[in-house]
């Protein structure tokens, strides 16, 4: 921003991997008088949300809605199904997997970590091998991230289910779908997930502060004997009250208005179209990165994220300085880097209420900022993204006409 200017002009380019830009329609839906959360109008709203959110997780079972961020729903998944000292198998796909593991330790579980170099997602074979070794069936749950937000790796959930079954192991499967839900295909029931953990502030196009547990019959059965202490997050009270459209405590009424609208918008677009749009934007971003001659942190081409691309900066350059410079010069925000790779990459979020034009704006800024920061790269990234999006649009239009 120019010196002496007291306001940035125009809109901010929010390219963090969530919270994502709020559609005006969601904002307007939330801008409404407070209603009685024990009254009939609320019950209608709650039932609409409780039914609607099932269609997003693709489940016919209940989905619990928490007035908490995703971290709360992580804790809810664990305390509702586990007992103190239970072993859980987790995979170190990146920062968020590491945080979930730390939580498991803090609340008195015994997590075991399958380590990776953070440059790929979950390997179902490694899970199968570990479960086969567990002759005493001491591992009570396998916990993975569908999309590791810190690195941009998408893990194959259905394959992990098959791996657990192939090992003949009774462990529950818990999946964090916080940065993949409502932006990439997710099937709680069909994939045999026991607890899916979701959040409002990414694909659902909502503010932060709401999260979800989609639960299987097996998880509900586990809940009956689980001994971890719980109160706010307890499923049983929620399930009972939700049946009649209420919550055990004061719910986030305005968030529920937003959720109803977010779900409505996703269905108007069509979930398959939502997924195709995210795939297109992700591919366009990867092509830009490749044309710049920069490296994607994720090395596994079969596991690239449809919502986030982590871009490595060459040795001798600092990604945090790059982000600060880009914000200052062009009013754009990217996601930060973590762990052993802190300062070595920045993340471009391309999820939520975003279209091709918005992405090209963000990539154009990125190309300018790379030049300004003196980061060695080739020109033509934006052109590569534009060419791809143009061709993708052309073939989609042709298909629609056929
Ligand atoms: N899991 C994943 C994959 C995330 O991306 C995030 C946050 O971005 C979390 C968990 C934590 O959620 P929250 O920050 O909403 O508590």
Structure description:
With 402 residues, the protein is of the alpha/beta class. The protein has 2 domains: 13-20 and 270-401, Aspartate Aminotransferase, domain 1 (Alpha-Beta Complex), CATH 3.90.1150.10; 24-267, Type I PLP-dependent aspartate aminotransferase-like (Major domain) (Aspartate Aminotransferase, domain 2). It has 13 helices and 14 strands. The chain has a 7-stranded mixed sheet, with helices on both faces. The chain has a 3-stranded antiparallel sheet with strand order 11-12-14. A two-stranded parallel sheet has the order 1-13. Helix 1 (24-30) runs antiparallel to helix 9 (253-269). The longest helix has 22 residues, at 271-292. The chain starts with 12 loop residues before the first strand and ends with a helix. The mean pLDDT is 97. It binds pyridoxal-5'-phosphate (PLP). Residues 18, 69-71, 96, 145, 149, 176, 178-179, 199, 208 line the site of pyridoxal-5'-phosphate.
């Amino acid at each position: 921003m120019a010196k002496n200017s007291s306001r940035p002009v125009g809109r901010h380019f929010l390219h963090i991997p969530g919270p994502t830009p709020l559609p005006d329609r969601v904002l307007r839906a939330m801008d409404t008088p407070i209603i009685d959360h024990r009254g009939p109008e609320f019950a209608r709203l709650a039932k609409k949300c409780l039914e609607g959110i099932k269609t997003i997780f693709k489940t016919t079972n209940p989905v619990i809605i928490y007035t908490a961020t995703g971290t709360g729903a992580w804790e809810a998944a664990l305390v509702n199904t586990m007992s103190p000292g239970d072993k859980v198998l987790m995979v170190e796909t990146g920062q968020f997997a590491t945080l979930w593991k730390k939580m498991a330790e803090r609340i008195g579980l015994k997590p075991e970590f399958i380590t990776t170099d953070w440059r790929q997602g979950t390997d179902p074979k490694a899970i199968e091998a570990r479960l086969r070794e567990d002759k005493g069936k001491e591992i009570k749950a396998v916990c993975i991230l569908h999309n590791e937000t810190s690195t941009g790796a998408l893990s194959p959930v259905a394959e992990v289910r098959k791996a657990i079954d192939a090992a003949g192991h009774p462990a529950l499967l818990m999946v964090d779908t916080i940065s993949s839900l409502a932006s990439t295909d997710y099937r709680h029931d069909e994939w045999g997930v026991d607890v899916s953990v979701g959040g409002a502030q990414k694909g659902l196009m909502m503010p932060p502060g709401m999260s979800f547990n989609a639960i299987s019959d097996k998880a509900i059965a586990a809940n009956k004997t689980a001994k971890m202490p719980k109160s706010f997050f307890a499923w049983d009270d929620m399930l009972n009250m939700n049946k009649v459209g209420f919550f055990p405590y004061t719910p986030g009424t305005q968030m529920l208005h937003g959720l109803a609208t977010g779900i409505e918008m996703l269905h108007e677009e069509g979930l398959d179209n939502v997924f195709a749009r995210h795939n297109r934007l992700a591919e366009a971003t990867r092509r830009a990165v490749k044309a710049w001659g920069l490296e994607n942190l994720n090395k596994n081409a079969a596991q690239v994220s449809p919502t986030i691309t982590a871009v490595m900066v060459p040795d001798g350059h600092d990604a945090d300085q790059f982000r600060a410079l880009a914000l200052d010069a062009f009013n754009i925000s990217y996601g930060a880097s973590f762990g052993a790779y802190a300062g070595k990459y920045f993340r471009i979020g391309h999820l939520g209420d975003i279209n091709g034009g918005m992405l090209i704006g963000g990539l154009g800024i990125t190309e300018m900022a790379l030049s300004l920061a003196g980061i060695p790269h080739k020109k033509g990234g934006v052109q590569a993204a534009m060419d791809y999006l143009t061709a993708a649009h052309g073939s989609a239009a042709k298909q629609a006409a056929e």
